[in-house]
Structure formats: structure tokens, C-alpha cells
Amino acid sequence: MDSRLEAVRDTVLARNPGEKEFHQAVIEVFESLGPVHDRHPEFLEGAVLERLCEPERQIIFRVPWTDDAGRVHVNRGFRVEFNSALGPYKGGLRFHPSVYLGIVKFLGFEQIFKNALTGMPIGGGKGGSDFDPRGRSDAEIMRFCQSFMTELYRHIGEYTDVPAGDIGVGGREIGYLFGQYKRITNRYESGVLTGKGISWGGSLVRPEATGYGTVIFAQEMLKTRGASFDGQRVVVSGSGNVAIHAIAKAQSLGATVVACSDSAGYIVDEAGIDVALLSQIKEVERGRLTDYAARRPGASHVAGGSVWDVTGTVALPCATQNELDGDAAAKLVSNGLIAVAEGANMPSTREAVSVFQDAGILFGPGKAANAGGVATSALEMQQNASRDSWSFEHTEQRLTEIMVGIHDRCAATAEEYGAPGNYVVGANIGGFVKVADAMLAQGLI
Ligand code: GLU
């Protein structure tokens, strides 16, 4: 790493002790930025990086709620409003027991660059709670969401901060959150949340957008080597919203997706995953992959283990951070992998990324490859602002243009800074320069 940046990095690490995912995200970005500071000494003089690593505002709050038996529970809620140089803070809410400040900050930090890459007017933020939705009834989820919003509402707004979904937060939760926001504020402010239902201000294609976008990005990478998804054997991790729509899109382009996973194990389906069945089990019944294997002839379930043991030519990690380590990467490479696109946020460890890059594998980092979700959230905001709703075809066309644009910008930036084909460098520099220029233009804030 560039020595001028090392000092800044050390300060950031010392100042945010114990937040290992945030450290990882910061280091990964800093490693790309040396050449930018050679060309732009004004970024150093303006202490852009020091400012960028310190969130503009961090909110931590108590979320008390009662379960169906009347027992009181207390969770911790977070919203980190990281950077508003390009627009209102924008980023999802994650409900998962692993959530703590370090996770929210890594996600919020990544979101700044991701959102900049989309070319849409959105800043970066993230939030969530250590609440575990698994096994909770609808009524419990509703009461939790209402309690969460009872504090969050005072910090958000269509021109201030616009949350959306992430792990554990989908259409159902956004509905309960929106209802409570409306009730407290007495405002039908559609643009305050994205990922809403279609009949009440949501956008078509938003549910599909992250998974579809990841595959579109991967397809653009494959094209640079004269390849396509047609005939590829694809391995996906996860089986939530991102994974399901990535599988659907990859198969619509002629690939066979042979595996996906959940926290209990993975399934192998050599005939190609039946997306309708997977979606019915995971999204409607909120069931497990063991149910898929039981209902799908020819499919098998492997309890525990790693989905990355399955041979494939394209890997789409769509589960969670640090789910793919150096050993898994080496195994994938030795099994004939040609491309990886991250549907999740930071699913590959730093060792895994090095293994892929050293082996010359096409590697699309999450902040570029999974930006279709938040980009389509920005399209939802655009529709809300004009009180309009667009067709599926039009919205999907916009998403496709945005993803192709992100790919091309990353590729061109990597080339410009002497690292052709390195999408990590392209994404980090491309996102950073845009935000840094805006920060300098707006003065010392
Ligand atoms: N949570 C998603 C992400 O990681 C989407 C955020 C949004 O739509 O605001 O980008």
C-alpha cells in the first residue's frame, strides 16, 4: 500500500477498534488508491480519505418489542449515515444476529462507492439490527419493525436518508416500516423507503434487480474474453432474494445453475435449479433447502460442507460477507473456474480475491457487480418523485444500461490507472474519484 495512505489507514484502524469487517473494507479500498493520489494531490491536502472514513452521523438505538407470548425483548438498532456528497444517504437495513456496528460500517462504507458507480444521485448509508427474524411470526416481525421505525423515523426522509432492504429485510418488513413511518409522520412520503410493494409506490424489477444485475455484470466481463453465459456451469451461494434472481437470469441466458446454499448446507441439481420451486420454498413457505431436495427428483442435499466444493465455470457468491475464503477460491480455480461476480457484499476474503486475480480469473467485486439493487432503488425514487410507475420492460432496460455502464466505467478506469482487467481497482478508483471531487467542491464539511 502507498505509504501516504498507510498513515491514514493506521489512524482509521486505531480509531475503530474491533470492527474487523470495517477494517477489511477500508484496507481493500486503500490498496487501490495510491495512483489516484499521485495524480490528485488535492485529495491528500483536503484530507478526503480521513473524512470519508468517518461517518457523517452514526445512530444507535434501543429497539424493545414483545413476542407472541408477551415476553419483552430488547435489540439494538443502527443507522450509519456515511456520506451525502452525491445525494441523500442510501442503503439497506440488515436484520441478522451477526449485526453490530462494524458490520453496518463496512456495509455503509462499501455503499458509498457502489452508489457513486451507479451514476445515480445517492449517497451512502446502511443500518439494521441484531434482531433474528428466523422463526418469528408475522405479528412479531410487525411489532419489531414498528418499534424500529419509532426511533428511525426522525432520522430519515426522501431528501435525507432512504433505507431499503438487505439480509432479513424484504417486502414484508419494508411494508411494516413504511406503515409505521406514515402513521407517525402523517405523510405519504413514498420516497422515504425503497423496495416497496408495487401497489403502494414500489418499482417493478426492484426484487429482481440485484441478482439480475450481478449476472448482467458477469456477462459483460465474459464478453471481454469472447465468452457468454451460454453453456456455463454456474455455482451460486445463498438462496435468498439475490441468489434466486441471479439463478433465474443466468439460466435465461443459457447457463445451468447446478448448486445453491443456505446456512444448513447446499443442494446439487445437475438438471439446473428449478427456480419456481426454489422461490416457492424460500420466499413463500420460508422453508429450507432440504425441502427442495425432498421435492425435486434428481436433486441432492449436502448438510454442512461448502458449496464451493461443487465444480463450476462461473461462481456467484450471493450469501454474505467472507463466505468464500482462500482455500475455497483455490479449489474453484483448480476445478476450472473462469469468472466470479459477487452478488453479496464482500463475500470473498482478501485471500480469495488474491487467488482469483493471480489465476487471471475474471473477478467482479460486489460494489460494482451487485449495484443493480441500489440502482433500481434510485429508479424507484425517480418514479416516486414524478408520481409515475414504469413498465417492467422499461425498468429492466434502464437496469441493463446501468450495469453495462458500471462495467465499462470500471474497465476503463482500471485501464487508465495501469491495471487493465482489474475490476477491483476500477470500481474503487471510479467510485472514489466521483465522491472525492464532490466532497472537495462542497467545502470542508
Ligand atoms: N442492500 C442493498 C445493497 O447492498 C440495496 C440497498 C438499497 O436498495 O438501498 O446495495
Account of the 3D structure:
Among the domains are: 56-189, Rossmann fold; 208-369, Rossmann fold (3-Layer(aba) Sandwich), CATH 3.40.50.720. The chain is globular and about 65 Å long. Helix content is 48%, strand content 16%. The strands form two sheets. A seven-stranded mixed β-sheet has the order 9-8-7-6-10-11-12, sandwiched between helices. Strands 1-2-4-3-5 form a five-stranded mixed β-sheet. β11 (339-341), α14 (350-358) and β12 (362-364) form a beta-alpha-beta unit. It has 445 residues and is α/β, with parallel strands linked by helices. It has helices spanning 3-15, 20-30, 34-39, 41-45, 48-52, 101-118, 138-152, 171-185, 206-223, 241-252, 275-284, 289-295, 326-334, 350-358, 366-369, 372-385, 392-416, 423-441, and strands at 57-66, 72-83, 89-95, 124-129, 161-164, 233-237, 256-262, 265-268, 300-303, 314-317, 339-341, 362-364. α7 (138-152) crosses α8 (171-185), α9 crosses α10 (241-252) and α9 (206-223) packs across α17 (392-416). It is built from 18 helices and twelve strands. The structure holds glutamic acid. The site of glutamic acid (GLU) has 10 residues, from β3 and α16.
Shape: globular
Count of distinct strands: 12
Proper CATH architecture of the domain at 208-369: 3-Layer(aba) Sandwich
Radius of gyration: 21 Å
| CATH-assigned fold name of the domain at 208-369 | Rossmann fold
Strand order of the largest sheet: 9-8-7-6-10-11-12
Percentage of residues in strands: 15-25%
Distinct small molecules: glutamic acid
Terminal CA distance reads: 27 Å
Q: What class would the helix/strand composition place it in?
A: alpha/beta
Q: What letter string, H or E per element, gives the SSE order?
A: HHHHHEEEHEHEHHEHEEHHEEHEHEHHHH
